[in-house]
Amino acid sequence: MPLVRTTAPAAEPVTLAEAKMHLRVIDSSEDSLISMLIASARQHAETITRRALVTQSWKLTLDQFPTPGANISSANWYGPQWSNMPGPLSVVRPDGKTGYEIYLPLPPLQTVDSIKYIDTDGVQQTLSAAQYIVDTVSEPARVTPAYGVTWPSTRNQINAVEVVFTCGFGALTEVPEAIKNWMLIRIGSLYENREEVALMNRGKLEPLPFVDGLLDPYRVVTY
């Protein structure tokens, strides 16, 4: 499931001024360093939470559209591929999934910008938005065929399906304060300890247990 960022965030969740105030830095001699530390802290927060923070765009590629396993009974799916009358998407597995979902990582999802696929003739097609439903309530978000619709057939080749989507909380002001506070603490640690190891001469170093707990409410456990 290759995932490539197509548009980077236009700003960081923590501004340079906010980081300098936290670090108690007044002059501008280290602005470039602090800016790099801000980006590093944001990337670390996104990795831990498995989220996108400020608005950004990504492209997810699949070898084919997802379909239920061959051992799943078609009696549990009331769709046009097994009858002439369209029916609702129904649960076919104990975990509550139908097998047709495309799960989009890095929540929260804002929009699905396009779904493209290579048809059986080898021509790239753009799937009409009327052919699928986007669930932005669930995290991670999911995309399923619309009512009475199935995914189209694709050529048997790698990366035959491309989903371009926009995600993130929005502008930097929309990022939760707990994540920003975690970033400031992490920036402070990176600023004070600029090497791989730190020589401590002031007694035992005790990490503050609440720090990483700031991210706990925003962690995405599964995709």
Describe, in short, the structure shown.
This protein is of the alpha+beta class and 223 residues long. The protein has three helices and eight strands.
Describe it for me?
This protein is α+β, with helices and mostly antiparallel strands. It has 2 domains: 100 residues, Phage gp6-like head-tail connector protein (Hypothetical protein yqbg), CATH 1.10.3230; 106 residues, no CATH class. The protein is 19% helix and 20% strand. The chain is built from 3 helices and 8 strands, in the order E-H-H-E-E-E-E-E-E-E-H. The strands form 2 sheets. Strands 1-2-8-4-5 form a 5-stranded antiparallel β-sheet, with no helix packed on it. A 3-stranded antiparallel β-sheet has the order 3-7-6, with no helix packed on it. Strand 4 and strand 5 form a beta hairpin. Helix 1 crosses helix 3. It is elongated. About 9% of the residues have low confidence.
Keywords:
single chain; 223 residues; alpha+beta; Hypothetical protein yqbg; 2 domains; 5-stranded antiparallel beta sheet; 3-stranded antiparallel beta sheet; 3 helices; 19% helix; 20% strand
